[in-house]
TrEMBL record:
<protein>
    <submittedName>
        <fullName>Uncharacterized protein</fullName>
    </submittedName>
</protein>
<dbReference type="InterPro" id="IPR036188">
    <property type="entry name" value="FAD/NAD-bd_sf"/>
</dbReference>
Length: 33
C-alpha cells in the first residue's frame, strides 16, 4: 500500500531532519569555541 511507503519515507525523512538538527547544534558549539 502507498500509505505504508509514505509512512516509511516520512520516518526516514524525519530521522534525517533530526540528525541534521543535532549535527547543526554540535557544529555550532564547535565553531563557537
Amino acid at each position: 500500500p502507498a500509505g505504508e511507503w509514505a509512512g516509511y519515507a516520512w520516518g526516514i525523512t524525519s530521522s534525517a531532519i533530526d540528525g541534521l538538527v543535532i549535527a547543526e547544534k554540535i557544529i555550532a558549539k564547535y565553531l563557537m569555541r
